[in-house]
């Protein structure tokens, strides 16, 4: 275990253990109900291959009983035929992932045995109170032959005693990595440092890796991701041009420009932004805005800010400030 402020690697070296997961389609799909055209998904897929990205998160394995198919696009469900329409048999080094939300996934039926799927990784996502069902989901996916990782969401509101108990249980599970998830974009670098060290110590000796998933409400997603890497996290999430719910995520292009690994290529990502992402900005909005800054500052879910930005008073930031501050007082 590293000392609290010890860094792993130097400015002149690269760590081959670092793996990047592109969440553009999964997290970005929260903006448009996952209604991406297959040609757009294919462009992201081909970009990730060229850029040397390790994993592509292509969407959710959501329950069609909870999320009605007439209201959401195919990347909300990631049916096998939909994925293969884009990737075929995926005979590339890029591994494919789908997220399964605890309580929102019919995982026993909808997650097929690995031998019948082109997916490589199932990422289980849960809140702290959902750890028991998450552990069953992890076992189910592992028994079916997948690599499995865990997203412990909204970490900024989890009590440390609960976190330590959860990590003790997770350390005994077959996950390969556990992600620190700053769902509200509320964390500062000191808090990231503290959490990374907690996770590293809890998972020490298990062979499990620590990951970082950062949101950009306070424009700290990139900085916090770097902080996690420096301290020893090995898995990092990013999206192309930061595309994601509300304020968005750590931008993939920033992350690749920081890492020294020659296997990661920046130019394909810039080409994708120019040809596919910038045109999309005319249709959907994401990225840092003052309402998201305020919810991040207050450690609140950004749903009120998202609602405000979609309404007629989307630029009335003073009224929104009065509203959210009053909620907290």
What does this structure look like?
With 329 residues, the protein is α/β, with parallel strands linked by helices. It has two domains: 19-280, Alpha-Beta Barrel (TIM Barrel); 290-328, no CATH class. It has 13 helices and eight strands. The chain has helices at residues 24-28, 38-51, 80-87, 107-110, 131-143, 160-171, 189-203, 221-231, 252-258, 267-280, 290-297, 303-309, 317-328, and strands spanning 19-22, 55-60, 95-101, 121-126, 147-152, 177-182, 209-214, 235-238. An eight-stranded parallel barrel has the order 1-2-3-4-5-6-7-8, surrounded by four helices. Helix 7 (189-203) packs parallel to helix 8 (221-231) and helix 11 (290-297) runs parallel beside helix 13. The model has no long low-confidence stretch (mean pLDDT 95).
- Using the coordinates above, name the CATH class of the largest domain: Alpha Beta
Work out the strand percent. Answer: 5-15%
Mean pLDDT across all residues, rounded? 95
The side-by-side strand order for the widest beta sheet comes to: 1-2-3-4-5-6-7-8
Per DSSP E runs of 2 or more residues, the count of β-strands stands at 8
SSE sequence, one letter per element:
EHHEHEHEHEHEHEHEHHHHH
What is the third-level CATH name, the topology of the largest domain? TIM Barrel
Give a brief outline of the structure.
The chain has 329 residues and is α/β, with parallel strands linked by helices. 40% of the residues lie in helices and 14% in strands.
Spell out the key features of this protein:
eight-stranded parallel beta barrel; 8 strands; alpha/beta; TIM Barrel; 40% helix; globular; 2 domains; 329 residues
């Amino acid at each position: 275990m590293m000392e609290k402020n010890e860094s792993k690697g130097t400015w002149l070296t690269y760590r081959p253990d670092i793996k990047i997961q592109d969440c553009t389609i999964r997290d970005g799909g929260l903006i448009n109900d996952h209604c991406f055209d297959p040609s757009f998904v294919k462009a992201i897929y081909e970009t990730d291959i060229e850029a040397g990205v390790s994993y592509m998160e292509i969407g959710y394995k959501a329950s069609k009983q909870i999320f009605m198919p007439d209201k959401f696009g195919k990347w909300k469900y990631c049916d096998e035929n939909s994925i293969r329409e884009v990737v075929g048999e995926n005979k590339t080094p890029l591994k494919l992932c789908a997220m399964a939300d605890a309580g929102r996934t019919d995982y026993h039926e909808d997650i097929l045995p690995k031998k019948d799927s082109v997916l490589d990784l199932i990422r289980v996502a849960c809140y702290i109170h959902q750890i028991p069902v998450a552990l069953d989901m992890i076992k189910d996916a592992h028994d079916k032959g997948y690599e499995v990782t865990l997203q412990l969401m909204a970490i900024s509101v989890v009590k440390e005693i609960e976190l330590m108990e959860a990590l003790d249980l997770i350390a005994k599970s077959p996950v390969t990595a556990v992600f620190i998830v700053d769902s509200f974009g509320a964390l500062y670098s000191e808090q990231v440092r503290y959490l990374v060290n907690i996770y590293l110590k809890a998972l020490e000796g298990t062979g499990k890796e620590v990951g970082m998933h950062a949101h950009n409400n306070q424009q700290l997603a990139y900085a916090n991701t770097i902080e996690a890497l420096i301290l020893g996290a090995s898995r990092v999430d990013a999206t192309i041009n930061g595309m994601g719910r509300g304020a968005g995520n750590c931008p993939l292009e920033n992350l690749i420009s920081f890492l020294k690994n020659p296997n990661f290529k920046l130019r394909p990502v810039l080409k994708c932004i120019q040809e596919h992402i910038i045109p999309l900005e005319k249709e959907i909005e994401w990225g840092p805005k003052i309402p998201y800054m305020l919810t991040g500052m207050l450690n609140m879910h950004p749903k009120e800010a998202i609602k405000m930005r979609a309404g007629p008073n989307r630029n009335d930031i003073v009224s929104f400030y009065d509203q959210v501050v009053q909620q907290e007082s």
